[in-house]
Design a protein that fits this description.
This protein is of the alpha+beta class. The chain has two domains: 242 residues, FAD/NAD(P)-binding domain; 173 residues, D-Amino Acid Oxidase, Chain A, domain 2 (2-Layer Sandwich). The chain contains 15 helices and 18 strands. Strand 7 and strand 8 form a beta hairpin. It is globular and about 65 Å long. The protein binds flavin-adenine dinucleotide. Flavin-adenine dinucleotide binds next to helix 1, strand 2, strand 11, strand 16 and helix 11.
Length: 466
Amino acid sequence: MPKFNVAIMSVVSPRSFAYCTGAGLSGLAFGIGLQKYAPDIDFEIYEAATQLSEIGAGVGIQQRTWTIMQAMGIEEDLLKITEHGEDCSYPIVQRKSDQAEGVEVHRIQNMERNYSFHRAELQKVYLAKLRPRQVHVGKRLASYTQPEDGTGPIELQFEDGTTATCDFLFGCDGVRSRVRAVMYSQLAERAEAAGNAEEAAELRALIPPLFSGGVVHRCLIRKETLPAEAVGHPAFNHPGIVLYGGKNMHLITYPISSGRILNVGAGISFPGKEGVPYQGPWTRPVGREEIVKYFEGWEPDVQEVLKYVDGGILWAIHVTGKLPTYIDGQVALVGDAAHAMMHHLGSGSGQCYEDAWMLAQFLGHANITKENASVALRVYDEIRRPFAQRVADLSIRAAELHHFNGPELAWLTPELSATGTAMTDEQLKGIGEGTERIRAWRDHSSLIEENAAAMRRMDEALAAAA
Ligand SMILES: Cc1cc2nc3c(=O)[nH]c(=O)nc-3n(C[C@H](O)[C@H](O)[C@H](O)COP(=O)(O)OP(=O)(O)OC[C@H]3O[C@@H](n4cnc5c(N)ncnc54)[C@H](O)[C@@H]3O)c2cc1C
């Protein structure tokens, strides 16, 4: 039974919180977390889209993140929509493929399990866990106003002209976050008012997402549509990830939807374009020809996969700049709004879940009240911001390794790379081992221990604030 039974957005209860914006992976996971850890906190999710639908493609969840799924009680439901049961620690096969005859660079034998999902199926499971009345669709946040003295409710203004109030606002609204835009405008205004024009300019520069310099074409191949000769082809039969890499490009494949679908991602980087505004829509449908032309001359397995790609969706990958804070008063940024990162490490959503899990547990702390909940936000920022920003940096390094880039391979042109003889065995080994090392933190860290330390830090901070 909830401690209080309060009206939607009401502030009558000292433990009434409202929570807002974005029913993406972060928003839904945070809602599930609040239901579990803070059942006496009221929350509402406001989602801009009129209908909740994920653009279909694969998303991986690694063992570290799986800990959260277990703790939140959704493991069983998720196991029903992935083929991977207990044994899902398949090696990642890394190849150099931008040459007539490809070579295996490395087999990443880490024991990290990787659970692969179709995003739409994942979202369906999360939604089923939330009580439907808590997700309001068609509610695009335009702005918010929070009282300067930190007392009293925040007013939310939606684009449809309606308003609502809440005690705390969590911006789970993705890389183009409106909450971040409002927060950083307000921080900049305050810096200006204090005479710090340079700081104000730096804060404003963090509002828009930044083009990462890379795009990815995300495609799905339904195995039932494959002719018999393709079904038996090795390119379609590795149970885990195959990473076909080359200069400035890669093709990644892994099965999703219990093995019925092969997820294919074709990533291209455009060196020198990092941070340069991207021209054109950030996502758009692409035809097969547009994808295939990048991979001319690549090894036969890549051609085999591409033969059955029937177009896909292009994503221009945008990231969030390195923010100096995730919080302002009673408002916090969560997930991609705080730290959208490159996709090469497959850690973006993991970091979203880590935010959501920590915040839900902090807000569910027995000693939290509406009056001291800002302490939870402060500790969240103190722990999660440096961590997520480090993972974002590792994701940039992973992109370099996948695309045979980075300072050590600046000399390698696409033409040289295509000869297949420009790199020594030692250099190839260096790329493979580097790729393995960069993933090792997930495998060799314990989220359970980190979580226990975070809870201890929260106890200390609450005691100090008492
Ligand atoms: C191509 C690609 C591949 C990826 N692959 C992986 C992977 O394999 N593994 C992995 O862990 N991560 C991966 N990621 C990252 C992962 O998808 C993201 O980190 C994650 O989806 C972010 O979730 P989110 O809920 O924070 O944001 P989003 O999913 O963007 O959700 C934000 C929500 O907020 C809503 N919204 C936006 N503005 C407003 C507003 N003003 N008011 C109200 N609602 C609003 C949106 O409609 C949306 O529903 C990938 C990302 C990309 C782009």
